[in-house]
Amino acid sequence: MQATAHDITFAGFRTAVPAQRHSYAREPGMFTQAEADKLVESTGIYERRVLPPHLCASDMCTAAAIDLLKSLDWDPASVEVLIFVSQDSDYNLPATACLIQNRLGLPTSCAALDINLGCSGFVYACWIASQMLTGASGTRALVLCGDTSTRHLMPEDRSTRPLFGDAGAAVALEKRPGAGPMHVVMGTDGRGAPNIVVRAGGRRNPLIPRAERFTDEEHTTLYRDARLSLNGPEVFTFSLRAVPPLVRNTLAHAGVTEDKVDYYVLHQANKLMLEQIRRKIGVDAERFIVDLYNFGNTSSASIPLAICSSMGERLSQGSAKVLLAGFGVGWSWASMLLDIGPIPAPAVIEIADDFEPLSLTFKRP
Questions:
Q1: Separation between Cα atoms, residue 80 and residue 260, nearest integer Å
Q2: In the sheet that 81-85 helps form, which strands lie side by side, from edge to edge?
Q3: 28 pLDDT tier (thresholds 50, 70, 90)
Q4: Spatial separation of the C-alpha atoms in residues 166 and 149, rounded to whole Å
Q5: What is the pLDDT of residues 135-151, one digit of tens each?
Q6: Angle at CA 256, nearest 5°, toward 254 and 258?
Q7: Residue 212: its pLDDT value, please?
Q8: Can you tell me the distance from the alpha carbon of 136 to that of 173, in angstroms, rounded to the nearest whole number?
Q9: Which residues of 101-121 are buried (b: 16+ CB within 10 A; e: fewer)?
Q10: Whole-angstrom Cα distance, residue 112 to residue 143?
Q11: What is the rounded radius of gyration, in angstroms, for the C-alpha atoms of the chain?
């Protein structure tokens, strides 16, 4: 699918990360020091941020949104679209976006919804938000993206634990006549779904307690299937096969040549994969953002986190033509080419361990 939006612009970015840092390079245990050093070199990841167990992805996104609204001097009552992108909702129901709308003090006229997408979710959500603003009465939207990927990992899994970190991002979009265009290309291939999957926890393979107890074998199976299963070689092959054409198709759709793009910001999966993609699309390293060292792979938050971490000063000083591309779980992919800036400097903040979590007051019958 290809599409173009007009009169919509990015107004600001903010990302919240936990204060707690984990590094196998600094804290050898699962790996020898030599192995840890080799991992840092190949993945580009030295440390990841890990959220305390009493907080959720929604809390990181809420902290980022509060700080972003303040930096933009936006009245929360002026925001009429809220999208929460996460594979880690607070509850099966209600939608987490409803809780965040209330916490942020957004108006009851605000349209709020959840999207269950991973690595491509940021671009998808920004496109959906732009369409919700187009032709509507509202002029401002918040897109929140966050995941607690570290909670999906098996403690002893040497292949995934060094890669994933937790983060939550808030991005502000605004209807502004004359802004744009925003060119988007999206795609899906569900045949790849088994390669990045958490098998248990949904309705197909529920974790809901039964009247009869699980057997020891069933308990062991559910424990394993409730964690991330990732086929690394297939993910790598898919990324090298799908992302270069995605980038080329986006440039062609926009009628822009590669050299006219100031920055390429792709989903921050790992350094080796990104370097291979960069070479295939023929982009010089100076315009290709790789920002994994302090955060790891943060799923849906990785693109706005990279912008906040690497491009704050640049986007506060002027406009840049930026290509954003997310790809992964699903298989799902999406790319967006647009001009961003000048905007208040995107920034990374730390969420305090004592941040008040979103919560519901339950009255059981």
A1: 34
A2: 111-115, 81-85, 140-148, 166-175, 8-18, 347-351
A3: low
A4: 6
A5: 888 899 999 999 999 99
A6: 130
A7: 79
A8: 14
A9: bebbebeeebbbbbbebbbbb
A10: 10
A11: 20
How far is CA 228 from each of CA 38, 116, 122, 307, rounded to the nearest angstrom? 23, 16, 21, 27
Contacts of 99 (CB under 8 A, 6+ apart): 58, 90, 358, 360
- Give backbone dihedrals phi and psi of 100, rounded to 5 degrees, phi first: -70, -40
Range 66-70, long-range pairs (CB < 8 A, 24+ positions): 66/104, 67/14, 67/16, 67/170, 67/347, 67/349, 68/12, 68/13, 68/14, 68/142, 68/170, 68/171, 68/172, 69/104, 69/172
Tell me the pLDDT tens digit for each residue of 269-328.
Answer: 999 999 999 999 999 999 999 999 999 999 999 999 999 999 999 999 999 999 999 999
Q: Which amino acid is at 5?
A: A
pLDDT tens digits, one per residue of 78-100: 999 999 999 999 999 999 999 99
Instruction: State which amino acid sits at residue 11.
Output: A
How many residues are present in the chain?
365
Identity of residue 36: A
pTM for this predicted structure: 0.95
How far is Cα 2 from Cα 304, in angstroms, rounded to an integer?
22
The whole-angstrom separation of Cα 271 and Cα 292 is 7
Convert the pLDDT of each residue in 335-365 to its tens digit: 999 999 999 999 999 999 999 998 776 555 4
